[in-house]
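I am writing to request your help with a piece of structural work I have in hand. I set the record out below, with my sincere thanks for your time.
___
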Amino acid sequence: MTRSVVTIRPAARLIEAARLMREFHVSGLPVVGADGRVAGVLSEKDLVRDLHRAAGVASPRGLLDLLLDSSPAKGPTLLELCRRRLERGQVADLMTPRAVTVRPTVPVRELAERMEREGVHRLPVVDASGSLVGIVSRRDVVAAVAGAAPGPGRGALRPGPTGRSGRRASDDPYADV
């Protein structure tokens, strides 16, 4: 479980979400309201799908489409269209509004089963009031099952610096994650 969680507000621009994902090397962000409660989740996949829809590309084929579709004679390039969408769109437009969340007491096996059943790659961890206290990723679950040492900023009893949200969990019930 990562206790220092990078979060974003629903009213933030998509470009800010993309920058946070790149800066912190994460593929998704919990969307948190002013009250600290999880309002949804925005993933990199959500962004990519939307950018391809907004740019009129039927199916995402990757970075090469962005780089090679640069003929000014056709009007704005695919890259320009995508950039405009990121600058104008809000997180609330794309986030999955009903995030699949878990409480701090859920065993690792249940976390893995829930991720598989729900088709998600990360589970925001919330307390009894619904406030975000951490996040569990697939990497956390695999590390716990494999008995591997967690990566930087992750781990049971090693609190990291506070994340962008300014929140830190007081106790980490995932002693084995």
User: Anything to note?
Assistant: The longest helix spans residues 14-24. Residues 153-177 have pLDDT under 50 and may be disordered. DSSP finds seven helices and four strands in the chain.
